[in-house]
């Protein structure tokens, strides 16, 4: 069995956000925890910079240039939440490039599981707009690369960050090649992602939004994963599985109010791993949010251990919220 892969790059530390919650200290916190656990058998690889043609398949050249110029000027704010420093453009290139290199390795069969431990995060970035701490949409760029260049025809993206992955949602809104599922707290930034948003045009039904209220517990999340997201994904039969792995639904996180524990992410990772085995699809994960350093480090390490394991996930009851989602999503998928 090939070793799982962990993609990293020193430029992640050069995206200087000062006292911002999405700070450079997130990466060392994760890596110290992994070092204590002998990296869980993951082989570490340097994340390359993304090829410009790959990047501009998602983000128009004029937008990419605006990020470069902002960094060259020494930095500044794209909006009140989203900033760049002198090192941010380089970090963002390696963030997207690491996600693409991860997909290259997965599709080539070099490994069945990989993680991109890079920043800035990506899932809020729209095709022409930086927002929500994100500059380039790493998962979307990687998925587009797999579809355009690697012969993949179906990609499942699961976004379990506590904030809705609006950028990924919108980039693939009308595509049948990507099944996008997001579980997220609502109301919460950025205010998008209602259950009624199911995609558009040819992609109607290929967007699955599963909002949960503040104070939601593990059982609320896992009911949606088990009874909605996983059955739809199995019907879709992905050739590649990507996870926007945010850990800010943890009860200790300062930016949201869900009540997950590290073990909750373990259960979601087990569901993803089982899906990958059932469909013969490799699994790649990109770091998104998570702003309590201890919770982030513990949850990431637990997830990386679980996703390479063979343990089956547990089962929870179909709760009323998941039942409503089954009725909605079942219009398009046999749940």
What does this entry show, briefly?
With about 325 residues, this protein is α/β, with parallel strands linked by helices.
Describe the structure.
The protein is of the alpha/beta class. It has ten helices and ten strands. It is 38% helix and 15% strand. An eight-stranded parallel beta sheet has the order 2-1-5-10-9-6-7-8, with helices on both faces. The longest helix is centred in the N-terminal third of the chain and has 20 residues, at 88-107. The protein is globular, with a radius of gyration of 18 Å. The protein starts with a strand and ends in a 6-residue tail after the last helix.
Shape: globular
Q: Which structural class should the secondary elements be placed in?
A: alpha/beta
Poorly predicted segments:
none
Q: If strands are numbered along the chain, what order do they take across the biggest sheet?
A: 2-1-5-10-9-6-7-8
Q: Helix proportion of residues, in percent?
A: 25-40%
Distance between the termini: 33 Å
| Order of H and E elements | EHEHHEEHEHEHEEHEHEHH
How many DSSP-defined strands? 10
CATH class: Alpha Beta
Question: What is the CATH H-level superfamily?
Answer: Histone deacetylase domain
Mean pLDDT, nearest integer? 98
**Helix segment tally:** 10
Q: Radius of gyration from the CA trace?
A: 18 Å
* Biggest sheet layout: 8 strands, parallel
Number of domains: 1
Range of strand content: 15-25%
* Assigned CATH architecture: 3-Layer(aba) Sandwich
List keywords for this structure.
about 325 residues; 10 helices; alpha/beta; Arginase, Chain A; 10 strands; about 40% helix
């Amino acid at each position: 069995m090939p070793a799982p892969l962990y993609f990293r790059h020193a430029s992640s530390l050069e995206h200087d956000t000062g006292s911002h919650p999405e700070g450079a200290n997130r990466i060392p916190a994760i890596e110290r925890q992994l070092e204590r656990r002998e990296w869980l058998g993951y082989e570490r690889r340097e994340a390359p910079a993304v090829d410009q043609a790959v990047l501009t398949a998602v983000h128009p050249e004029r937008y990419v240039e605006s990020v470069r110029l902002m960094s060259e000027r020494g930095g500044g704010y794209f909006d009140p939440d989203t900033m760049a420093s002198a090192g941010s453009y380089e970090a963002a290139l390696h963030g997207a490039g690491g996600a693409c290199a991860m997909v290259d390795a997965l599709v080539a069969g070099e490994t069945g599981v990989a993680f991109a431990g890079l920043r800035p995060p990506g899932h809020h970035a729209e095709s022409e707009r930086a927002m929500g701490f994100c500059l380039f949409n790493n998962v979307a760029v990687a998925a587009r690369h797999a579809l355009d260049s690697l012969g993949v025809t179906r990609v499942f993206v699961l976004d379990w960050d506590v904030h809705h992955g609006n950028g990924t949602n919108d980039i693939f809104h009308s595509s049948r090649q990507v099944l996008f599922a997001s579980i997220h707290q609502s109301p919460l930034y950025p205010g998008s992602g209602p259950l009624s948003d199911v995609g558009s045009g040819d992609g109607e039904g290929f967007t699955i939004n599963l909002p949960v209220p503040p104070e939601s517990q593990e059982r609320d999340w896992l009911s949606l994963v088990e009874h909605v997201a996983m059955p739809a994904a199995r019907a879709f039969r992905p050739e590649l599985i990507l996870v926007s792995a945010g850990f800010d639904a943890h009860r200790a996180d300062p930016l949201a109010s869900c009540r997950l524990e590290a073990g909750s992410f373990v259960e979601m990772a087990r569901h993803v791993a089982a899906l990958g085995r059932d469909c013969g699809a490799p699994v790649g994960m990109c770091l998104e949010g998570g702003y309590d350093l201890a919770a982030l480090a513990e949850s990431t390490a637990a997830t990386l251990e679980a996703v390479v394991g063979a343990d089956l996930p547990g089962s929870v009851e179909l709760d009323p919220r998941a039942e409503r989602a089954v009725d909605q999503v079942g219009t398009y998928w046999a749940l």
